[in-house]
Amino acid sequence: MADDGTILVFAPVPQLTITIEQQGETPELHVHPGGQGIWQARMCAALGAPVTLCAAVGGEIGDVIARLLEREDVRVRIVARDTGSGWYVHDRRDGSRSEVAEHPGVPLGRHDLDALYTAALAEGLRARIAILSGAAGPQVVHPDVYRRLAADLNSHDVRVVADLTGDHLSAVLQGRVAFLKVSHEELIDSGRAPGDDDGALLDAAHQLRAEGAEAVLISRADRPGIALLGDDPLLVGLPALQTVDHRGAGDSMTAGVATVLARGGDLPEAVRTGAAAGALNVTRHGLGTGHRDAIAALADRVALTPLNAG
């Protein structure tokens, strides 16, 4: 295991993101590698953590993603896949995000999955923390990959952090996670919570712990989140900031938590830093971006208060 706080980010199928923006008279075209794992890795690096990103890319789109990843402030382990990578085109010229077209990518084949799994396991065994991130479409990566990878990393004392949905969430819980971040929308949509009130979400957090999560953080948009750290339920009060783009806030939150845990920090510090990273991300156009000093200042303003849900 690494002793320098290295974080593995398992980003199995990143996408090429193309965004059209316009601040003045001339439209702007922005092309970046994207997807949950990319945004998480970017935030971990911004917070000063050494990061290894493990991903599979293929086709012409994959070639572009691989070249763009060279510009990221992370170490990259690329696996060449036989099928094409995903992409999306969004239009933000009117200030809101409109989807022009999107393709999550072709599902990974058996040989691709074997190669990716081997690479992720090797890199994970060199890390202190492993973030397991999801794909743009649930069909692209089989859920059992997450169960196996989490179980294998846990058996070698690598702590797993995850933010997944649906069957992929259930699978990673079977492999066990040290810290689970999940949104209240996912809990409601999957039937794990009947509503977004404190009591319903706290019950869901206890159930997630029973299924395999040591600690749980439930994000709740612009309302206080709920954390279950050991036996202590807490309300997580977020600093109030003006929103430019809400996308990526949850991924920045996960990255903030993982970065603190990787350097040996405790759970309350991890939650405060994660909440601050997520809050700052919504003030910016770039997903998974933020300044370390601003996040540290905001973390001091995140309130953790005991939750009494009756």
Automatic annotation (TrEMBL):
Domain Carbohydrate kinase PfkB, first and last residues per copy: 23-289
Pfam families the UniProt entry points to: PfkB
UniProt keyword Translocase present: no
Residues in the signal sequence: none
Coiled coil feature spans: none
GO molecular function: ATP binding; kinase activity; phosphotransferase activity, alcohol group as acceptor
Gene3D superfamilies assigned to the protein according to its UniProt record, in alphabetical order: 3.40.1190.20
GO biological process, one term: carbohydrate metabolic process
Family under the similarity heading: Belongs to the carbohydrate kinase PfkB family.
Protein name according to UniProt: 1-phosphofructokinase
Phylogenetic classification of the source organism: Bacteria, Bacillati, Actinomycetota, Actinomycetes, Micromonosporales
